[in-house]
Amino acid sequence: MLGIREDIRNAQLRDPAARGALEVWLTYSTLHAVWGHRWHHWLWRRGLRFAARAGSQWMRFMTGVEIHPGATIGRRLLIDHGMGVVIGETAVVGDDCLIYHQVTLGGTSSGAGRRHPVLGDRITVGAGAKILGPIVLGDDVKVGANAVVVRDAPAGVTLVGVPASVARSGSIEYQI
């Protein structure tokens, strides 16, 4: 129950459209997707793989957010306008991350092992961004809308473009 309360409070703090705890609890389908993922991840880790996958596909149908039950999600993940978000099986998302709609944390191979990205804490991923492969983004990274990230990035940078690179003008980094 603590995680649910924490998630509701986080949504109220970070989303200016959140009007109250009851509204967030009842209408934020992206939180429902995260809460469903917690249950499906619990099943996955106990070897109940079919039940976990079936449940995650039902949650995808209901919310438009696909989080593989094998993915590891940190505390206070906020997915804003989450339709079309895909988080792959071996992805890791740190604490206090913000992900917008149409984001993919995807793999680039079908081999065994880690195929999906690792996101540090306090990362913001803009709408439509694709973060692909077994790469690592450090803490406090910002990924611009529609960027395609295919390489590791150190903490605190802003990534934009296709393929994404650190946003700089002279020696000043732009913040989005």
Please tell me about this protein's structure.
The chain has four helices and 17 strands. The protein is an alpha/beta fold and 176 residues long. It has one domain: UDP N-Acetylglucosamine Acyltransferase, domain 1, CATH 2.160.10. β16 (168-169) and β17 form a beta hairpin. α3 (29-45) packs antiparallel against α4. The mean pLDDT is 92. Its EC number is 2.3.1.30.
In short:
The protein has 176 residues and is α/β, with parallel strands linked by helices. The chain is built from four helices and 17 strands.
What's the SSE blueprint?
Layout: H1 2-14, H2 21-27, H3 29-45, H4 49-63, E1 66-67, E2 72-73, E3 78-80, E4 86-87, E5 92-93, E6 98-100, E7 104-106, E8 118-119, E9 124-125, E10 130-132, E11 136-137, E12 142-143, E13 148-149, E14 158-160, E15 165-166, E16 168-169, E17 172-173
Parallel strand pairs: 1-4, 2-5, 3-6, 4-7, 5-8, 6-9, 7-10, 8-11, 9-12, 10-13, 12-14
Antiparallel strand pairs: 14-15, 16-17
